[in-house]
């Protein structure tokens, strides 16, 4: 009986882990589809972070910190948009979002995100998520292409 239970658990656990990794991948893809859509429809990042949908994908701490920064007079902490590391998002990015499956990185899960096509204007980002209230949420984004990080956490 113990052998049977052990075999069943051994067969189940790899699939349970893959589900978490692909669920996080889907969430980050959905976030970037939403975010880039809003940017492409001329909604400013300081207004996007106040939208209720952002609470589904981004940690409360990061959203609060971003709101504090955006309300500073003449803020100079953000050199570019935090989630894209670009001054302007390219319209084609919304249709060409590629996200790797998540991989463990300490208490977080890390993903690679590519916006745009390799032969044109594109961005390569690394995104970290961690559990907050039972959901995996973005708490850190790095420009992996240019090795730049705007530390807001």
Comma- or semicolon-separated keywords:
alpha+beta; DUF3828; signal; DUF3828 domain-containing protein; single chain; Nuclear Transport Factor 2, Chain: A
Structural class: alpha+beta
**Overall shape:** globular
What would CATH call the architecture? Roll
The rounded Rg comes to 18 Å
How much helix, percentage-wise, in residues?
Answer: 25-40%
Keywords: Signal
Protein name: DUF3828 domain-containing protein
Pfam families: DUF3828
InterPro entries: DUF3828
Provide a concise account of the structure shown.
The protein is an alpha+beta fold and 153 residues long. 38% of the residues lie in helices and 22% in strands. Residues 1-18 form the signal peptide.
Structure description:
By secondary structure, the chain is of the alpha+beta class. The chain has one domain (2-143): Nuclear Transport Factor 2, Chain: A (Roll). It contains 4 helices and 5 strands, in the order H-H-H-H-E-E-E-E-E. The protein has helices at 2-40, 45-48, 54-57, 60-70, and strands spanning 97-99, 103-105, 108-115, 123-132, 135-143. Strands 1, 2, 3, 4 and 5 form a 5-stranded antiparallel sheet that branches. Strand 3 and strand 4 (123-132) form a beta hairpin. The protein starts with a helix and ends in a 10-residue tail after the last strand.
